[in-house]
Amino acid sequence: MIAGTVEAEGLPVIYLPVAGRTWRATIDTGFNGDLELPPAVATAVNARFFAEGSAALAGGQRIQEDYYLVDFPFDGRTVRAVASFVAGSEILIGTRLLRDYRLEIDFPAHEVKLDRTR
Q1: Binning pLDDT at 50, 70 and 90, where does residue 27 land?
Q2: Whole-number mean pLDDT of the chain?
Q3: CATH of the domain at 45
Q4: What gap in Å lies between CA 84 and CA 42, rounded to an integer?
Q5: CA dist list (Å): 108 to 15, 29, 67, 93
Q6: Were 25 and a residue from 5, 79, 91, 99 both cysteine, which residue would form a disulfide, CB within 3.0 to 4.6 Å?
Q7: What integer pLDDT is reported at residue 53 of this predicted model?
């Protein structure tokens, strides 16, 4: 199980060890991809160019992005995922990465729980 918190702004976050440090990772239930990562972790996750594609953002905006296959450390194992890299220092977790998990967000208690189901 991975435990996290709901921050004051209402964002569900967990903290993940990647590339020798702990990163804040927001769970975005409106993002149906795997991951959005900061460039600082590209080498540590063995990023390999996969494809260029179009992504739909909130408000109907579309952008072109490069996508990479990555070997991402998650919940005690390494998972193969598709990621884009965006300037910054936070990780964004999409629903496709969580397809083997039950996500529980308890807003009043400020708790986030991820339980692997398979």
Answers
A1: very high
A2: 93
A3: 2.40.70.10
A4: 10
A5: 20, 18, 36, 22
A6: 91
A7: 82
Q: How many alpha carbons fall within 13 Å on the CB side of residue 82?
A: 13
Q: What is the largest CA-CA distance in the chain?
A: 41
Q: Is the pLDDT of residue 67 over 90?
A: yes
What's residue 41's pLDDT?
A: 96
List, in order, residues 6 or more apart from 21 with CB less than 8 Å away.
none
Three-state SS annotation for the chain? CEEEEECCCCCEEEEEEECCEEEEEEECCCCCCCEEECHHHCCCCCCEEEEEEEEECHHHCEEEEEEEEEEEEECCEEEEEEEEECCCCCEEECCCCCCCEEEEEECCCCEEEEEECC
The confidence score (pLDDT) of residue 115 equals: 96
The whole-angstrom distance between residue 55's C-alpha and the CA centroid of its chain comes to 15
* Structural domain boundaries enclosing 104: 2-116
Q: How many domains does the chain have?
A: 1
